[in-house]
């Protein structure tokens, strides 16, 4: 009996194990069925998403095709390289800044991809910052410099040191951080002319081809309305006027390590090789609230003539401005001008045609310039706007007047009359 009971217990245990195994298999089978059902649900969801995406893709494709048909084709796989970044240098004049921005927007809208606009503020004036940030069409940069200014000489204006620091910081940002190949620098008291951007695009080609050109400017110091009569006139100059000028990265690579603590103009003049400029920009009210305390404004800046002729510079052949060609081009014009001598020079201008007037030295130049009312100032031994010591302007008519230095004709290869 004991052996029979042991055998029955053994079979009972095996039967219980078999039942438990069957229950486990059933549970796993049901779990597998549940997983398959879930996967089938996910598959159905993914198929629905795929169909939805295909539908959206079709709608987007139709929209792109519609936009292309309407002439609003966007560059997707090929991004156009900008001609130049445009930076407005600002500090604490929100009203001036607004006027400059609106002037730029007036002509930049159609070429915005070629000329991305930046405002670089020196300091933390809240009105300037708020004004700049109120425009989605531009990028705002802020230069915060808390390092005390130590002037090198007693009595120097601290603002000139701050301006120098701001310019270096802003140009480093645009050339090295944003990687632009060219930058156009405007100040916050400028208005631009209708062909401003067309001019700089044409000039960019000159800047790339002729390495003797350090920068391209759209400002003429003697651009007052009584001295300009030709909106197509372009000149090279040995004088750096600034105010609306374009600089290439290759030149900034040279300038940046040498940038001075103040008065960068001196550095630019000392490194200056040659320069193109045209009367394109007019100043609004520069220096009245600025660092120069109104110097020159009433006499020279307020009467500046803003160019109002829409010149298509890109369609013009500007190769005559290349270094070797320009010397011959300019020499031929100067040589044809009739020499005028003696006192009462203005009374002798009734002869008609271009004239040239010799000056002996700086004081003599200042005397003659004062008679006509053009800029008398020199910097680093160079009169404003001069090329080979020659200053050219038009006096009340289309007649050109050339103020010719003591060695100018020799430099141009012209025999002295």
UniProtKB/TrEMBL annotation:
Q: Name one Pfam family in it.
A: GNT-I
Pathway given for this chain reads: Protein modification; protein glycosylation
Recorded superkingdom: Eukaryota
Q: Can you quote the record's cofactor note?
A: The cofactor is mostly bound to the substrate.
Record membrane topology = Single-pass type II membrane protein
Under Enzyme Commission nomenclature, its number is 2.4.1.101
One GO cellular component term noted in the UniProt record for this chain: Golgi membrane
Coiled-coil residue windows: 36-70
List the catalysed reactions.
N(4)-(alpha-D-Man-(1->3)-[alpha-D-Man-(1->3)-[alpha-D-Man-(1->6)]-alpha-D-Man-(1->6)]-beta-D-Man-(1->4)-beta-D-GlcNAc-(1->4)-beta-D-GlcNAc)-L-asparaginyl-[protein] (N-glucan mannose isomer 5A1,2) + UDP-N-acetyl-alpha-D-glucosamine = N(4)-{beta-D-GlcNAc-(1->2)-alpha-D-Man-(1->3)-[alpha-D-Man-(1->3)-[alpha-D-Man-(1->6)]-alpha-D-Man-(1->6)]-beta-D-Man-(1->4)-beta-D-GlcNAc-(1->4)-beta-D-GlcNAc}-L-asparaginyl-[protein] + UDP + H(+)
Q: What class of enzyme is it?
A: transferase
**Could you tell me which Gene3D superfamilies the record lists for this protein?**
N-Acetylglucosaminyltransferase I, Domain 2, Spore Coat Polysaccharide Biosynthesis Protein SpsA, Chain A
UniProt-listed InterPro entries: Glyco_trans_13, Glycosyltransferase_13, Nucleotide-diphossugar_trans
**Per the record's keyword annotation, is Transferase included, yes or no?**
yes
UniProtKB keywords: Coiled coil, Glycosyltransferase, Golgi apparatus, Manganese, Membrane, Metal-binding, Signal-anchor, Transferase, Transmembrane, Transmembrane helix
Question: What is its subcellular localisation?
Answer: Golgi apparatus membrane
Q: Which cofactor does it need?
A: Mn(2+)
Family statement:
Belongs to the glycosyltransferase 13 family.
Q: What does this protein do?
A: Initiates complex N-linked carbohydrate formation. Essential for the conversion of high-mannose to hybrid and complex N-glycans.
Name of the protein in question: Alpha-1,3-mannosyl-glycoprotein 2-beta-N-acetylglucosaminyltransferase
Q: Which organism is it from?
A: Rhamnella rubrinervis
